[in-house]
Amino acid sequence: MRQDTITIPENPTFATGLIMLRPQPHRGRGVLLLNSAETYARISGLPGLRSASFFITPDESRVCEYVQWETPADIAAAFPVATFNEHLPVVEASCSAHPEVGFYSVRKVAMATGEITEHLGGGPTDDRFAMQVIASRPEGHEEDLEAAMAWAAEQSAAGGAIRSVVVMDDREHAKIGLFARHIQAADSNAVCFSEGWRPIDHVSHLEWHSTVAPSTPEQTMRYSMKLVDGFADVPH
Length: 236
Description:
This protein is of the alpha+beta class. The chain has a single domain, classed as Alpha-Beta Plaits (2-Layer Sandwich), CATH 3.30.70. The chain has helices at 28-43, 72-78, 82-85, 88-93, 141-157, and strands at residues 15-21, 49-56, 63-69, 100-111, 117-121, 128-135, 162-170, 175-182, 198-212, 223-226. A hairpin with a 6-residue loop joins strand 2 and strand 3. Mean pLDDT is 79; it is low at 116-124 and 216-236.
């Protein structure tokens, strides 16, 4: 059930979950381990789950999850199942605020030139990640989404701190999700797409912890991103 690589395709039919938790002081690592263990042991066998990746800030004040499901219907079918929801009250009791949960479709995967395959964690590099959710204008959501995708392409091609960006769309709630990989030394402000926007939350310098995916046997854990639309998969 542990996966060494996952694929993040530009596929609007997939349902991508961004979950941001704010654990109580000194409980961040426990929340992270509980969620990842429950996903590995009990949730990974549910129909439609493609992968679940877990991240934490260095000060352990935030725990973030990046989850891929085949369809929104798979998520809806999972919620009433005991193996999916039994641990949730324990997690919420260990957090100081209600989790920020959103489900999105991936609209763009932008990568630095020459980096069709990117190792996002668990490998030889010590890169960091940033997850941000932005409230767009309900009357101008498509325009805002186009601006976000243009920003992602510009930043990833600039050869600077940001090496890749996944742009996600929650049209129903007028939200845009951004998930970026950046070099460790980057100023967190350089990873924040917030000028002229209203961020719902911004978490910078996340550290990758683990990825669970049901389609492969247990292996040494790494995490990688592939841009698959228009490119052949790169063999490992």
